[in-house]
Amino acid sequence: MPRRTATLEDVARAAGVSQQTVSRVLNRPEVVSARTREQVIRAMQALHYVPNRSAQLLAGKAAPSIGLITASLTLHAPSQIAAAIKSHASLHQLEVAIAMPAQADFVALQARLDELRAQHIRGVIVSLPLESATAERLVQDKPDMACLFLDVSPEADVCCVRFDHRDGCGACVRHLWELGHREFGLLAGPESSVSARLRLASWREALHSLNIARSTTVFGRLERRQRLA
What we know:
Blueprint: H1 8-15, H2 19-27, H3 34-47, H4 53-59, E1 65-70, H5 76-91, E2 95-99, H6 106-118, E3 123-127, H7 132-141, E4 146-149, H8 165-178, E5 184-188, H9 194-209, E6 215-219
Parallel strand pairs: 1-2, 1-3, 3-4, 5-6
Organism: Klebsiella pneumoniae
GO molecular function, one term: DNA-binding transcription factor activity
Keywords: DNA-binding, Transcription, Transcription regulation
């Protein structure tokens, strides 16, 4: 039979103190005597008590957090990006709150940002393909939140992480050319992705620079189950 989850009341009873004292140990430990703090902590450990995160948020005592707005984590690329963000955030003792809007439009994104703000989060990574106008409007609408975008145009007037698609695609094409290949194919990302469109343009530019006429482009999606025949 599963063990019943310990409550704040259980901790108070085990430590022989009031529930208010347990709450102070969690939220304002400096106002509680060392002896009482030790009693409460021992009781928490014995009962395997886990503080309620929602209550801590209300008290302003939750671990510092950042937000991540992303596509469904059932998709391969978004899940890999989210895993990397969480891994690096943990190195800096940061929690990551993830929001996944059904649509990548302004209204849906605005709602997700409002949800993250309600959790006292003021820094958000937006890992969704967005047109410049949408990204800029979000920043203007939420001046108290720092937003970092991962898939926007280089011309967008927002903070973003960009990759040099031109040099990267050029290096790939030249490498294959030097290996003796003369027919090229590109499995591009979804056409809705700004980064995918930039890579495609850079790819075509690199092919043109080497006078390569024979090439094939196939637009794919992000699902792991999809395969190029």
